[in-house]
Amino acid sequence: MESLEDLASLSTRLRDIAADAATGVGPGLRAAFRSGVSAGHKTNAHDLVTEHDRASEEAIVRHLLACEPDSRVLGEEGGHRGQGRIEWIVDPIDGTSNFAHGVAFFCVSIAAALEGELLAGVVYDPIAGLLFTADLTGAYLNGAPLHPQAEAEEARACLMTDYPSAEALALDGPAALEAFGELVGTYATVRRKVSAALALAHVAAGWTDATLGLDTNPWDVAAGVLLVRQAGGSYLPFRYDDEAGPAHEAPCFVAVGPGGNCPTAVAVVERLVAARRATGYRR
């Protein structure tokens, strides 16, 4: 078992490895963006994938395993690979729909965990040139420490959410639009940006006050969880069962910047999760 000092040193090294891996695929993503990207479908017409998702993940995985051989990888495109003690959680393009449609709100997300505990996280916006990083020493934007302050009043706060998706509309019915209407009526602005990782990074930077998500995957949020928490914010996970586990493995969440107060967002997610649990829904 590493000492706290050793863990801090390890987390910083893993952060730097992840940052190099993320920025390494940046030139290719910038070159492909708005160049007529062809997208295919995975689970449905709303779940897109491109050749750049797959190529970027392969390049990222090669870099991570070369720099830290005692690793395993959970990637959105390639699934589980390797047997090492350090787990890398990789989303090569979070916000593929935006990327494919020429909308400049997508990112590369890479996190590192040891025995379920997040040690490092990187969210890289290649179009804006924004490198968000976090380790056990803090959270940073392009190397500068992040010290955000969220809006304390809900009526003046900015909220990001991808809810409701088409799948959520089919699952939750009228309750989905009622929930979205409650959010729109409560907050100063509600923005649908379709990248949970980048939304969490914006909370960590203080550019949005809160974000919530339902039915996310570990690769969508793992890096963002550490960013928000190390920037002083809170990340509240919600599950459909009573099992314990790492926050980034929970399918639903509310994240709020430091000083923020978003009881409506929390109540909305609690209500939706409870209603789904009552039907036996699991994910």
From TrEMBL:
Leader sequence segment: none
EC number from the UniProt entry: 3.1.3.25
Name of the protein: inositol-phosphate phosphatase
Cell cycle listed as a keyword: no
Keywords, in A-Z order: Hydrolase, Magnesium, Metal-binding
Species of origin: Arthrobacter ginkgonis
Origin superkingdom: Bacteria
Catalysed transformations (reactions): a myo-inositol phosphate + H2O = myo-inositol + phosphate
